[in-house]
Amino acid sequence: MTALSRAHSFNAAAAQYAANRPSYPPALLDAVEELTGRPLAGARVADVGAGTGIATALLRERGADVIAVEPGDGMAAEFRRALPDVPIVRGDGNALPLADASHDLITYAQSWHWTDTDRSVPEALRVLRPGGSIAVWWNTTAFDVPWIAAQHERIANHCGVRQPSLARPDDSRAAQLAGFSGLRFVRRQLRWSRVVPLDTHLANISSHSAFLVLGETGTQEFLTDERARLREIFPDETVEETYLVDLLVAARP
């Protein structure tokens, strides 16, 4: 299964994605302001790969003048339902439908890894004003929580995907993976958690691309077994999900 087909798989599950995926802690937006050296209020921001608008909504709440960029039909439709007053244009990080030197900040929440950084980095720099910044971030897995690490191993085995490394890349390697080598960048990692019903947790994990391309039968087989396992750990069917947000901010040279 190609990366492109996995990226487009979200469109068929946009409502599930919007209802069950985690958002981000307020400290993340505080860090973005600190590391970019300017408030979000009044900043002209493009949120690329905006999906259903989870990050876009937070940026708007901070007072940013934000426009969303989203390639997928299903995700864009869900975005318009959730944020009807926020402009959204169709496109992706590899070819931004935005003017040169038009934005103070370009953000990519969970979406940067779907881009080709040989193309998306120059595109972001083209669209940024002098002094502008690129901010990319992900909710990453807290592998030091035993039940979470065990679950991800089961997911990898069931879906036939590569088990992610338990070792986090250092700053240099993280910048290289993000395509930021040669740029002035800073990194911040923020730990947070949310408490959700078991049904929400299962809907969250099954909204990931590994399950969306697997199909209904294979997904339901996994979820049935996983529900039984998690009921033993969380008998009240309330699950604490723990995340580590990995944030990188690069300045336009």
Brief digest:
This protein is an alpha/beta fold and 253 residues long. It is built from 11 helices and 7 strands. The chain has helices spanning 3-8, 14-20, 26-36, 54-61, 73-82, 117-127, 146-159, 171-178, 198-205, 209-212, 216-233, and strands at residues 44-48, 65-70, 88-90, 103-109, 128-141, 185-197, 238-251.
Can you describe this structure?
This protein is of the alpha/beta class and 253 residues long. The protein has a single domain, classed as 3-Layer(aba) Sandwich (Rossmann fold), CATH 3.40.50. The chain has eleven helices and seven strands. Strands 3-2-1-4-5-7-6 form a seven-stranded mixed sheet, sandwiched between helices. Helix 2 (14-20) packs across helix 9 and helix 7 (146-159) runs antiparallel to helix 11 (216-233). The longest helix is centred in the last third of the chain and has 18 residues, at 216-233. It is globular and about 55 Å long. The relative contact order is 0.16. The model is unreliable at 1-9 (pLDDT under 50).
Number of domains: 1
Question: What is the name of the CATH architecture?
Answer: 3-Layer(aba) Sandwich
State mean pLDDT (0 to 100 scale): 91
Shape: globular
CATH topology: the name is Rossmann fold
- Given this structure, which CATH class is correct? Alpha Beta
Query: What's the SSE pattern?
Result: HHHEHEHEEHEHHEHHHE
**Please, what is the CATH homologous superfamily?**
Vaccinia Virus protein VP39
How much helicity do the residues have? Answer: 40-55%
In whole angstroms, how far apart are the ends?
37 Å
Task: Give the biggest sheet.
Answer: 7 strands, mixed
Oligomer: single chain
Number of strands: 7
Count of helical stretches? 11
* Percent range for β-strand residues: 15-25%
Report low-confidence residues grouped into runs of 5 or more.
Answer: 1-9
| Structural classification | alpha/beta
User: Largest sheet, order of strands side by side?
Assistant: 3-2-1-4-5-7-6
Work out the radius of gyration. 18 Å
